[in-house]
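Sequence, please.
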């Protein structure tokens, strides 16, 4: 198998794993590139399989708008930045958006990251395949395209 990033040889890194969080069926291997270290799933799920995985197996069916809205953090100064650093959540690049930026979150999930981007004064766009999030997106007026990268409207 060749690496999807650099084209060099990839070899088995982890074999015969399964989804122990959400119950998606099947067993998979992880291959790692000998050159750049990129890891990829084998067999690679098709687009339709990924759509099904996120819509049918991820636990977003029971979420409501108030839960999503309440989980969005606001960053207004040094103390807030220090708090996210201490909590270990400062590794989310969207938290560094600046006013006037346009940010695209591919795989935006519930849209909470889009709310956080908006709280920072940037314009937020999302792409998500999980149809369970449509109601939340509508209730919060989030700009989310439901589909995949290959039908990207932005």
């Amino acid at each position: 198998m060749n690496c999807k990033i650099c084209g060099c040889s990839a070899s088995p890194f982890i074999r015969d794993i399964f989804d122990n969080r959400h119950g998606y069926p099947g067993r998979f291997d992880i291959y790692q590139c000998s050159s750049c270290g990129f890891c990829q799933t084998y067999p690679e799920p098709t687009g339709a399989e990924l759509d099904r995985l996120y819509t049918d197996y991820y636990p977003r069916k029971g979420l409501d708008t108030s839960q999503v809205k309440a989980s969005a953090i606001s960053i207004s100064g040094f103390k807030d930045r220090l708090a996210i650093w201490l909590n270990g959540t400062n590794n989310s690049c969207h938290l560094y958006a600046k006013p006037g930026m346009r940010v695209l979150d591919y795989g935006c999930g519930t849209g909470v990251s889009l709310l956080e981007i908006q709280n920072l004064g940037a314009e937020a766009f999302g792409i998500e395949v999980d149809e369970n999030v449509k109601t939340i997106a509508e209730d919060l007026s989030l700009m989310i395209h439901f589909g995949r990268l290959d039908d990207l409207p932005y």
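The longest strand covers residues 10-17.
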